[in-house]
Amino acid sequence: MRICGIKLTHDGAIAVVEDGRLIFCIEQEKLNNNPRYQSIDRLETITAALAEHGLDPRDIDRFVIDGWDGEIESEFQVVSEGAPVTLHGAPYVERDANGPLTAYHSSGLMLGGGAFPYESYPHVIGHVASAYCTSSFAKAKQPAFCLIWDGFIFPRLYYVEPSGVRFVRCLFPIIGHAYAAAGQHFGPYRQEVRTGWNLDIAGKLMAYIALGAVHENIVSIFQELYNEHFAGDTKIGLEYRSSSRCEDALLAAVHGFFDVSASRLVAERPEDILASFHAFLERLLVREMTIALRQSVPGTRNLCIAGGCGLNIKWNSALRASGLFDTVWVPPFPNDSGSAIGAACCALAADKGFVHLDWSVYSGPNMNHGSVPPGWHAAPCSLKELANVLADDKPVVFLSGRAELGPRALGGRSILAAATSPQMKNHLNNVKGREHFRPVAPICLEDRAHEIFEPGTPDPYMLFDHRTRLEWKEKIPAIVHLDGTARLQTVSRKSDHPIAELLVEYEQLTGIPLLCNTSANLNGRGFFPDAAAACEWGRVDHVWCNGLLLTNVKGT
What we know:
Blueprint: E1 2-7, E2 13-18, E3 21-27, H1 44-52, E4 62-66, E5 74-80, E6 83-89, E7 104-111, E8 114-121, H2 123-133, H3 136-139, E9 144-148, E10 156-161, E11 164-170, H4 178-183, H5 201-208, H6 216-231, H7 235-242, H8 247-264, H9 270-295, E12 302-306, H10 313-321, E13 327-329, H11 339-352, E14 376-380, H12 383-391, E15 396-399, E16 413-417, H13 424-432, E17 441-445, H14 449-452, E18 453-454, E19 466-468, H15 470-473, E20 485-486, E21 489-491, H16 498-510, E22 514-519, H17 531-537, E23 542-545, E24 548-552
Parallel strand pairs: 1-4, 4-8, 9-12, 12-13, 15-23, 17-21
Antiparallel strand pairs: 1-2, 2-3, 5-6, 7-8, 9-10, 10-11, 14-24, 15-16, 16-22, 17-22, 18-19, 19-20, 23-24
Organism: Rhizobium loti (Mesorhizobium loti)
Protein name: Nodulation protein NodU
Keywords: Transferase
């Protein structure tokens, strides 16, 4: 059985699952230096992705489109061979809390000269399926709670077991986009005109708050205004909650909340305001999760997290540290980059229940060298030789095999550098055109992470906060964030991915089991699609791609 999951809207992607195994997932932003969050507007894109893997649309048994905006159904305007096509799908949130896994069936998916039937499941349930089916809980056939918090929905808690899923409750009435909206009112991303949904701000804000401090008087103001504008039985609160299916009304209400907040906080520094708002939301999340678990009958202590807010490593870490759960799982694609996988998993679950998906994080597009641009020299280079280049304080674009899934560079499409120089973080931020307060993440051998970080537990997908131990801060200053934390990625020494061998070689050479790791991409674009693109970018003088080192002759 081959199932093709499709995400048409932002973070567009095509995934194929065959007999319970993920064959590939092609996110559009990772092709051709495409912009971040690239959608699928032409149905030929789907045909091309299948053909790249030796498949014809007729080789697919079921096509599944991820649901989107709409209370009853969603609508997609796309193009097939130059002609407009309208497709319909499931809504964003399930209509029946007792039967969330309800399919919408339709036809007219125009691919390769044929028209194919397709099904669709609610967008939020796709997040549930992608998180649970990729977890160890599914593999062990254990139940789990699943927290989904996306841009314009309130955080929703589900209970999942192999036999099915049910909605438990909304935790509290704040949309996920409130975090990014805060950044449009305070700090370096403040905007006078605030329209639409800005997908870039939230991650940058998470870094910026390290410049500030949590002030309890500011937290108290946010709590007071939260009760008035969102949670209380006030006129404005009731109107807000009654608009929970209207994006524009929700966003307008959130901006109104911050307008009033700003009038109360004129004497405060923006970095303190944002740090305090973060703390307010984090405490609210843990508190309301605690209440929900007390009122819930199931006794599982497993938690999956998905939705765009699943990229907030500090909230993930707060839930893990709360003691409410034994294990917290966040897939490497908690945002919509995992929605094509989630759509396919929904179809799988509809037939067989929520079974475990056999998958690898390195299931994205393959890497090609491309043509070597003028001014660059290419030569074979072993990983041991590359470790020597890195030990000489020279950053390297590291491109290997198939791209990682999700928005984080995990050693397949990375810029690597030694972490031992205090200047390296600023250098990498300058190379990437990023603000000075943005952190650079460490990629570390798993069995040594605990001696360098607290807690230093295995974290292969860079989705939790770790504090750098005092005795290591001066040894690896480039990866220590302003608040002493690090967005750690761990790699097993036994992994067959080349990044593991490189870390071992670098450790043997220097005694340091980690490197700086940031994404290899143009600003505002997805990962480099080939080595030639990295060379043409030209901001890093060494590009290693599948055993070949390309060196900028002019830069050396």
